[in-house]
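Q: My collaborator sent me two sequences in one message, no labels, and asked for predicted structures for both. Can we handle them in order? The first one she listed is below.
A: Yes, handling them in the order given. First sequence, followed by its structure tokens:
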Amino acid sequence: MGKQAAERRLDDSEAVAIARNIRISPQKLNVIAGMIRGQSAEKALATLTFSRRRIADTVKKALESAIANAENNHQLDVDRLFVKEAFVGKSFKMKRFRPRARGRVGKIEKPFAHLTVVVREREEQN
């Protein structure tokens, strides 16, 4: 008598990977997500491999996970995958304080973010 299984939110030709609580601000992470949005999976991996941004390795792991999910869980063709969506959400902020002059305090916020990568299989060209 458990709960009903939730309907799959994605199409049959899509797979998703979610990386949660990444230690970077959502704005900075969205710059990297925007770089790979719409690219083929192979080209997006190459872009992330040679990116000089610190967080590119974490985004690459999420993309590789989405590709592996597509291949192993949904039997999609890896050569025809492209990044349909790559979006960023806010997570929590760690709040820290640093002593400043004359008894004051400087507030430091260390933001975290969530990353969702959706890959989709391209339809065959006729």
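Q: And the one she listed second?
A: Here it is, processed independently of the first:
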Amino acid sequence: MQCRSDCGACCIAPSINSPLPGMPHGKPKGIRCIQLTNDNRCAIFGKPERPAFCNGLKPSLEMCGNSKMEAMIWLTELEKLTQPL
């Protein structure tokens, strides 16, 4: 599956605990990544400074759903379920 154009849900909904360019303390959940461009593309895609977390995310029907809204809902729920107690 290819990324949906103009989505970026995976760069907004989840938290990123490792540093990334422009966000040395990581990215909180629900906050737009500073590396997400205006057309919702990753500015550091394929570059060595891209966090391992991001490299591990692969578009799938389960994660992406049929719309950006479905992807945001699924990723937000996943974020909640994976938070430490």
